[in-house]
# Entry
Amino acid sequence: MRSAVVVGAGVGGLAAAGALARTGWRVTLLEQAERLRADRAGLLLWPNGAGALRELGLGGGLDGVTTPVLPDGIRRPDGQWLVRPDPERARAAPGVVHSEDLHDTLVAGLGDQVEVRHGIQVRTVRVSRDDRPAVGDGRSTWEADLVVAADGAHSTIRQRLAPQAAVVSGGWAGWRAVIPWYRASALPAGLATGGETIGVGYRFQYAPLGERGSAGGSTRGGVYWVATALGAPRPEPPATQLALLRRWFAGWHPPIPDLLAATEPEDLVQQAVEELRPAPPGYDFPSGPGGVVLLGDAAHTIADHLGQGACLAFEDAAILRAAGREAVPGGSLRGALEAYTRQRQPRAERLARQSRRIGAALAARGWLAQRARAATLGRLMATATRDLFG
# Structure
């Protein structure tokens, strides 16, 4: 039987491990943490990500936990329109899902065909002309026909195989949170549609998760929000970070201050906005009859102003599954891994460029730059929409 080792049990690693197992691979999943777990926040699931999960056979589990987002254009901090609602954007609107609900769906997709090993910190990787690829933690070694590196932006495996691809700051810091409905009961009724607001160097997005007063289809309903600000990640405790966010967004139109007032420090999940500069030369590294592939942030960390990080990882998993469905160790498998790089790398690098341009527009200062912001963002968003979903 064909064998695979997947390193990292984030959303991309879970999706890839389950997908390979369901197509006849014997899969071992190595995770550094002592148990499989998700963060406390949520994420946007765009149509391309949802479509990839459906290709992976996980669509049924998504239906009960995803809430459609009804986009309401883009506003300035005073509530005036920057970009009015657009039917094209509405067609490509995402859903919002609680991270724990999505995690449960992906774990259920592993079935009983994936061996999960916890507390494994991969430190070494072996590729050679004659031997199967292998990874190790200094005590044990795992060898397989295929190794999938889904170990995140700071991937140890990528650092060993493509050391020139370095993680650098994208110049922004980001925060996510889900406010449970019982704490959001006093928030304005206008939350039904969600919204996005942009100031100079700041951005705030929010969307309902489930129906007000209940969990809806999700077991963890509430209001999901995302905030980004120019600068480095904050080293202070969550309570201090939350106080900073309340100060930065004070005076913005409702319900933004209300959402931050209803947020508690334990709700807050801070995330660095980083990117790979330069990108790795490829996502596959041949070894004996198979090789190693990079997946998700290990392959293409981008300063993600498009909300595509998880979605791109799901696309990776779907393409890898399709490429490897009929492949057998030897030239067939090596060719499939080369095909994976050919399909995934141009798309990821294109989206990285688009996201970088959006970040530059968000950061633009000065009177002329601000006057051009609406047209610039409208054009960039339209381009991204066509590229992602057209």
The first strand starts at residue 3 and ends at 7.
